[in-house]
Design goal:
The structure holds 2 protein chains of 2 kinds.
Chain A: H1 2-20, H2 36-65, H3 71-74, H4 90-95, H5 98-122, H6 131-158, H7 174-177, H8 182-215
Helix pairs in contact in A: 2-6, 2-8, 5-6, 5-8
Chain B: H1 2-24, E1 32-37, E2 44-49, E3 59-66, E4 72-74, E5 85-88, E6 98-106, E7 111-113, E8 117-120, E9 131-140, E10 143-151, E11 166-173, E12 180-185, E13 189-192, E14 200-208, E15 221-224, E16 236-241, E17 248-253, E18 263-270, E19 276-278, E20 289-292, E21 302-311, E22 314-317, E23 321-324, E24 335-343, E25 349-356, E26 370-378, E27 385-390, E28 394-397, E29 405-414, E30 427-430, H2 435-463, H3 465-472, H4 486-491, H5 494-501, E31 522-523, H6 536-550, H7 562-566, H8 568-571, H9 575-588, H10 592-607, H11 626-646, H12 652-657, H13 666-687, H14 689-702, E32 713-718, E33 726-730, H15 737-741, E34 751-757, E35 761-766, H16 774-784, H17 796-811, H18 822-825
Antiparallel strand pairs in B: 1-2, 2-5, 3-4, 3-6, 6-7, 6-8, 9-10, 10-13, 11-12, 11-14, 14-15, 16-17, 17-20, 18-19, 18-21, 21-22, 21-23, 24-25, 25-28, 26-27, 26-29, 29-30, 31-32, 32-33, 34-35
The chains are: A mainly alpha, B alpha+beta.
Chain lengths: 220, 826
């Protein structure tokens, strides 16, 4: 009897939950838009995921191809997004205006559009490239696009005035990915993955800071 | 008076003490000369060890004599060599003389002397150790030397400082055990080469005169041999860590210094900058570390860090350490951990854990995101259970074992990279014993037990279902004849029997109820009374008692309640008829033995209550058909065999008493006797207790009369309601008598044997009221129907019953409905 009752109660709860589940358009939203919080939530999830993928991919590559080659020492000052001045510590991140930071994020994301496309195709040429790396390259490229869309939405929502010109830094690293010398080529990949890991982490970190600042008023 | 007394007490005490002291005193113990030694063979000293002083101050006197003289001298100098010693100066020392030395201790009571010691001065020479050992090191051309200097042992007599000593030097590295000994010669300095740089050496020297022993080793001296003067080795950067993703610290292992002062410098360059910086803060994070404050900490930037160790000989630089602070964040453990027990709606307790991020970590800004993992185990447990809880700062733990004490720890880590913090200090929580669970356990136990009981009950029901049923719902009785022997049926021609009986269903009880005892044919004979054993009465009583006890448990066949049903028709018979029957019996039993029997029967009858059995009517066995006779014959033969096999009763007495022609059969009858008697008694016992008693009396009375010759048998042919019941006294010779008398088909009266009294009297009764009798009577009736053809009229009929009875004892009761036999008679 007790069990039955418990079942009934749980069933009722479930149905109740079903009834009260969030509608697609939350009440109070304009034009059936997602709230900024929701947008940020999604963006953060996405950036978190992208960074997870990129750092996994980097680690796999590092383990497989970069051991004992001293790539890390060479990988200094060679990210194509280095020209974008981004906050380098907490204070900088907190001091920068959120619109500027958003623009920076957009800039970094855009800067990666091109190299990610090439990465996804070129990575298949790596000798004995494991499926996991190939798959991640493709996945990151796709997710990066989605994140860019989302960020553009957020920027569009947040920006008070005119949208700035699209900033991004061009990438000219495609030839290095196609180098004949294996060591150089592998380093080119290594560097690219290293930069990807760094920038994806930057974006993820900035987004989390922005979310806490804009949505939670610095009280996450 | 009192004062005087008091004052006298101390005096007494004093006296006592003095006496004790006196008694404790004795002459001194034996002193012992420990050693005699000459430092330089010109003088010598002897030392002794005093013996017990005997409680008194002792004087020690050393006497010596020389081997060359008789004269005894006393020690020349007690002081120079210290207490308990004697110093012999140059003047008293002669190296060519052997001294005989004794020490005498003296006190007030007496004196005691040591054993004499013979001393040859040259053999006791041992100088003191050299002194003033000093060590120096010298380095030339990258080689280290050790320069040791010392002085010869000092002598009390300064003038005699001209002795020549030999020296030995030994040395070893401080950490080693083995000494390296060098013979130095007569110099008082020595230079040791081939030493290990950077090792501390310990040095000792000793000396010896040209004769005698080596001195003790001098006191130790140690010296550090300096290292080779080289630039420092490479320092090693151990690790870098950022506790809060805002600052970071790097630690290094200093290069081995080589005894020189070495300075460590941390240098770094940041990605994108050419400039090399030095560590901004060597102090904050302790020795051999560099602390980078917020201003000096950048993220997503690779730091190229090196540590340079420098001494006067040069410097050495560590391998570069590349660090992106983003990836080296290792927070402090979480703080403010609280454990709280809460109860859910179901009253089941659960654990609520809350904690705070480490105070340094700024998680609010979103700059640092921490993830947590907690682990717990019962206090006595071995393995931790680890639970990753993500970014939340609280966790609910369900399904903890009640009554156990848990240890809980938490640590944290940045969301993507970095390292787990240390585990937080152990937190303990005791989960209270859950009474609900206990209740549940109790209920489960109760449930299990009750179901067990049910199982057992049902099992019993199945096993003894029939009895239980009959106990609760008494079954409708079916008339049965007890005493059909299955063995007989098996071994004999059972088909014949059945066909002869005309009852196709076996056991026939169920089918033939309506035919119930139209006739009861009983052949009683004297054989039944043959050879009663003396102890039978006793036996019988026992059996009877048993039977009465166990009767109620029997199946429907046995149950007394059935009897009225069987006897319903016969109840209509007037009681007078019954009495008449008995009388008839009495008349026909002319012999003395019978008289007694009759008397017994009548007396029995009288004792019975009016409603109960008053007479037993035996229908004479009719054997008109050959078939029946044949069958009977066979069966008797079989029975005979059986009885012979099964019962080891002595047959001879029976033979004596019985008829010539039927001798072979008598043994059977005799063997049967007991059984039959038992049966009849048992059956009668069922009817009433009183009857049993009566019979017992009869037994006791009758036993003297028992004589085969006296016995006759009665064959009751028929009892009819309207006619005079006839009891025929049958003699064995009267073949065919029974045939004449019986008209079985016409008579519808039911008669039963209520009792067999004294084995030769059958109490017959119309069925009407005999509640307890029928089964036994039926069995008798049945058996009586089976005499062999030729001897049907004789006791043999009786004998047939015997095996079945004997069988019955062993195999339990077999019941035959007498009605099943009827058709053959018709």
């Amino acid at each position: 009897g007790l069990l039955l009752a418990a079942l009934l109660v749980s069933h009722m709860l479930l149905t109740k939950e079903g009834v009260t589940s969030m509608p697609i358009c939350p009440s109070g939203s304009v034009n059936c838009q997602l709230s900024l919080e929701e947008l940020f939530d999604r963006a953060v999830k996405l950036s978190h995921y992208i960074h997870y993928l990129s750092s996994e991919m980097f680690n796999e590559f590092d383990e497989r191809y970069a051991q004992g080659r001293g790539f890390i020492a060479k990988a200094v000052n060679s990210c194509h997004t280095a020209s974008l001045t981004t906050p380098e510590d907490k204070e900088q991140a907190q001091q920068i205006h959120h619109e500027d930071l958003l623009n920076l994020i957009l800039g970094v994301l855009r800067s990666w559009n091109d190299p990610l496309i090439h990465l996804a195709s070129e990575v298949q040429r790596i000798k004995e490239a494991p499926e996991t790396i190939l798959w991640k390259a493709v996945e990151i490229e796709e997710q990066n696009k989605r994140l860019l869309e989302g960020m553009e939405k957020i920027v569009g929502r947040v920006h008070s005035g005119e949208v700035e010109n699209e900033i991004y830094t061009p990438w000219d690293g495609l030839p290095s990915l196609q180098l004949a010398d294996e060591d150089s080529r592998l380093f080119a990949f290594y560097n690219l993955l290293h930069c990807l890991r760094r920038d994806s982490h930057k974006i993820d970190n900035y987004l989390k800071v922005l979310k806490c600042r804009l949505i939670h008023d610095n009280n996450c | 008076m009192k004062q005087r007394f008091i004052s006298s007490v101390p005096i007494v005490l004093q006296l006592a003490l003095t006496t004790v002291g006196l008694t404790g005193q004795s002459y001194p113990g034996k002193p012992q000369i420990i050693r005699c030694r000459s430092l330089e063979k010109e003088t010598f000293s002897c030392w002794w060890k005093p013996g017990s002083d005997g409680g008194l101050p002792n004087n020690y006197t050393l006497f010596y004599s020389k081997d060359s003289e008789e004269k005894i001298y006393e020690c020349p100098d007690y002081l120079t060599s210290g207490p308990n010693s004697c110093y012999f100066d140059k003047n008293h020392t002669n190296p060519w003389t052997t001294y005989i030395i004794t020490v005498m201790a003296t006190n007030e009571i007496g004196s005691n002397s040591s054993d004499p010691q013979h001393v040859d001065v040259t053999s006791i020479v041992q100088p003191d150790a050299p002194v003033n050992l000093s060590l120096e090191t010298n380095t030339s051309a990258n080689l280290s030397y050790l320069w040791a200097k010392w002085s010869p042992p000092p002598l009390g007599d300064a003038s005699s400082n001209s002795h020549v000593y030999h020296y030995e030097l030994r040395l070893k590295p401080e950490e080693k055990e083995e000494w390296e000994t060098v013979s130095v010669g007569m110099q008082t300095h020595y230079e040791v080469s081939s030493l290990k740089a950077g090792v501390k050496y310990i040095v000792q020297v000793r000396c010896m005169l040209d004769l005698g022993e080596w001195s003790e080793w001098s006191s130790e001296r140690s010296i550090q041999i300096p290292k080779e003067r080289l630039p420092p080795e490479k320092p090693i950067i151990i690790k870098c860590r950022s506790p809060e993703k805002e600052t970071f610290t790097c630690w290094w292992k200093p290069a081995s210094a080589g005894g020189l002062l070495t300075k460590h410098t941390l240098l770094y360059s940041k990605e994108g900058e050419e400039k090399v910086y030095e560590c901004p803060d060597y102090k904050t994070a302790g020795p051999n570390s560099c602390y980078f404050d917020k201003k000096h900490t950048s993220f997503w930037t690779i730091y190229n860090i090196t540590v340079r160790a420098t001494n006067e000989m040069g410097s050495n630089v560590s391998d570069p350490h590349y660090v992106d602070v983003t990836y080296i964040v290792q927070p402090d453990p979480p703080v403010n951990i609280t454990l709280e027990l809460k109860k859910s709606i179901k009253r089941k307790p659960y654990l609520v854990l809350t904690w705070s991020p480490p105070p340094q970590a700024d998680v609010r800004s979103g700059w640092l995101t921490l993830e947590y993992e907690l682990r717990l185990k019962p206090e006595e447990g071995e393995e931790w259970e680890t639970i990753f809880v993500g970014q939340q700062t609280q966790c609910k733990m369900f399904s903890l074992n009640p009554g156990k004490r848990y240890i809980v720890q938490i640590h944290c880590k940045p969301d993507h990279h970095g390292l787990w913090s240390e585990w937080s200090p152990e937190m303990f929580i005791e989960i209270p014993p859950d009474f609900r669970v206990k209740d549940m356990v109790v209920w489960i136990i109760v449930g299990v037990l009750s179901s067990l009981i049910c199982l057992i009950m049902s099992w019993i029901m199945i096993m003894k279902g029939y009895r239980m049923m009959s106990f609760i719902l008494p079954p409708v009785p079916g008339p049965k004849i007890k005493g059909i022997d299955t063995h007989l049926l098996e071994t004999g021609k059972s088909e014949e029997l059945l066909s002869a009986l005309g009852c196709h269903g076996f056991p026939p009880t169920s089918d033939c109820e309506e035919l119930l005892i139209e006739y009861l044919e009983v052949e009683d004979s004297e054989d039944q009374q043959l050879m009663p054993s003396h102890d039978t009465p006793i036996k019988n009583t026992k059996i009877i008692l048993k039977e009465t006890d166990s009767d109620s448990g029997r199946g429907s066949c046995d149950s007394p309640s059935l009897l009225p049903m069987k006897c319903r028709e016969s109840r209509s018979l007037p009681s007078t008829l019954q009495t008449q029957d008995v009388r008839a019996k009495e008349k026909k039993v002319g012999k003395g033995s019978w008289d007694t029997c009759c008397a017994a029967s009548t007396s029995e009858r009288k004792t019975l209550p009016s409603g109960s059995i008053k007479s037993c009517t035996w229908l004479a066995a009719q054997l008109p058909s050959n078939q029946a006779a044949m069958f009977a014959y066979h069966s008797t033969v079989e029975a005979f065999k059986i009885t012979l096999n099964t019962t080891n009763v002595n047959t001879s007495p029976v033979l004596v008493g019985n008829e010539e022609s039927r001798q072979s059969l008598y043994p059977i009858a005799e063997t049967v006797y007991d059984d039959l008697e038992k049966i009849s008694e048992m059956e009668c016992a069922k009817t009433d207790q009183t009857t049993v008693q009566v019979r017992q009396n009869e037994h006791s009375n009758k036993s003297p009369f028992l004589n085969p010759k006296l016995m006759d048998y009665v064959e009751v042919h028929k009892v009819r309601q309207d006619e005079e019941p006839t009891l025929l006294l049958k003699h064995k010779e009267n073949n065919g008598k029974t045939k004449k008398c019986t008209v079985p088909g016409t008579s519808k009266e039911y008669t039963k044997v209520s009792t067999v009294v004294d084995h030769h009297i059958l109490v017959l009764l119309p069925d009407q009221r005999s509640q307890n009798t029928p089964v036994s009577q039926e069995s008798v009736a049945e058996t009586s129907q089976n005499p062999p053809q030729s001897q049907a009229e004789k006791n043999t009929s009786y004998s047939t019953t015997t095996p079945s009875d004997s069988r019955r004892d062993t195999s339990g009761s077999d019941y035959m409905d007498p009605s099943s036999f009827m058709p053959s008679f018709k």
